[in-house]
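Changelog note: in this version the structure field was regenerated for every chain. One regenerated record is shown below for reference.
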Amino acid sequence: MNRDIKAFIFDMDGVLLDTETICERTWIIAGKEFGIPEEESTVIFKKCIGTNKVDTSNILKENLASTVSAEEFMKRTSELFSQIETSEGIKLMPFARETLAHLKQKGYRLALASSTREPVVERQLRNAGLFSFFETVTTGDMVSHSKPDPEIYRVACRSLSLLPEKCAAVEDSPNGIKSAKSAGLFTVMVPDRIQPDCELSEKIDLLCKNLGRVRLIF
């Protein structure tokens, strides 16, 4: 276990907030409206977990070009997400608040690295009561390349004036783990929608079934 860690950099979607459950629902609903089978929508959705808007659009163009435009599909899923967020709210992932409070109390610095756009990240974190935990917030619209590219984690580490090897990334997705490992961080995976395969397991330094395990280990 790396005990030289000075900071934890968290992903948001699927790690702290249960947004990915809502996202998958919107993709299935929108897919049915555009005549896309549920299974196909789910497969494409999983490819997009952890990516920013630009890269999601490119993946959609590659997979849905003959059915619906990426712009139209994204516009519809955004409308559906807004409806669900307004009517139902967004649930916290298990142990999210307790783990952030524990790490902060232990003296670790906390930052966020999310592929989601800054206005959305700030709104959702504030509504969840988590925004004040973070010293810095790095979002998808602040970088040119989203996860699995390492750029966002390099920027997040620089925002803390720390070397990557002094930071741990907490991620739920393969794209996020690949991004953090390529940037040189200690990687903690808390799987949400996707379980790690053998190839990904080599890039994971610590695998936890939920955030409560992180709190017990650090």
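Spot check on this record: Residues 51 and 136 are 20 Å apart (CA to CA). The chain has two domains: 7-17+93-217, 19-88.
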